[in-house]
Amino acid sequence: MTPQNRTEQVVELLTPAEVARLFRVDPKTVTRWAKAGRINSIRTLGGHRRYRAAEVSALIDGSHVVDP
């Protein structure tokens, strides 16, 4: 497959601080939500959590419910 034919899917990821700002909560709350399975997270190679922007938007729009 050549680079011209390859379609790359870019997924926008948010930090815990960015997600916290959107929900108006502390970043540690976002981490607790992830540990509890209330919001999906991705781990970076360094072990940091990142969140898919599309999933966060769906939560904000009311598609999913997050309890603080």
Automatic annotation (TrEMBL):
It comes from the Bacteria. Signal peptide: none annotated. InterPro entries: BldC-like, DNA-bd_dom_put_sf, HTH_17, SinI_DNA-bd. GO terms for molecular function: DNA binding. Keywords: DNA-binding. Residues 13-61 form the Helix-turn-helix domain. SUPFAM superfamilies: Putative DNA-binding domain. This is DNA-binding protein.
